[in-house]
Amino acid sequence: MHAPRDHRAAERTGILVIRVWTERDAPGQLRARLTQTGDLGEAATILATASGVRGVCEAVEEWLDEFMDPPPAR
Questions:
Q1: What is the DSSP code (8-state) at residue 40?
Q2: Quick one: which of 44, 53, 55, 71 could link to 37 by a disulfide (CB 3.0–4.6 Å)?
Q3: Within-domain flag for 52
């Protein structure tokens, strides 16, 4: 009989906040700041700034790719 696995040990959490805005001088230009943290108990860090929808999407995709990489060994 196998011992029950602790699925919580493999669980990871990531939080990404995207703040978007436009500027008066360039109302059609989207700007964004992406802030990340691994958990609500950790301090948030600015991950990237981006402009335009495509730039924001690329920054989010990069963050997701990095999140899906295996966590560092402890």
A1: T
A2: 44
A3: yes
